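Review form for a predicted model. The reviewer records the input and the model, then writes brief findings.
Reviewer: anonymous (R2)
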Amino acid sequence: MQRLSSGSFVRRMMVAPLFSAAACQTHSRFNSDYVNKAAKKKVEDGDDERWLEAEMDKNIITPEERYAHAREVEALKRMVSQLKDEHKDNLEEAARERNKELEALKKEMSDLQQKISKLTEK
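Model under review:
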């Protein structure tokens, strides 16, 4: 009996310091004065929580992924600028055609007004 109790006593004596050491380290590990002000404001304002997932994803990506993401963003910006240039040309052409049609209609209206004025004079 004594042998059994001494084994448990030794185990208790070995485990007790480990728990206290682990408790001290976990407290210091998770204790921080850092406050993400933007995140805090979003939480206080009650905004959508999807930003939290995006922030976490942004914080855990590797440098290679960051580089690839930056390249993708640059490529998308170039594509958008090209599309804007193409649409700008198309819009200018459409505006020119519309202006020509308006000028033709205005000329036709002035001709009709002259005819009406001639008919009313007689």
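Findings: The mean pLDDT is 78.
Further findings: The chain is about 90% helix and 0% strand.
Recommendation: see findings above.
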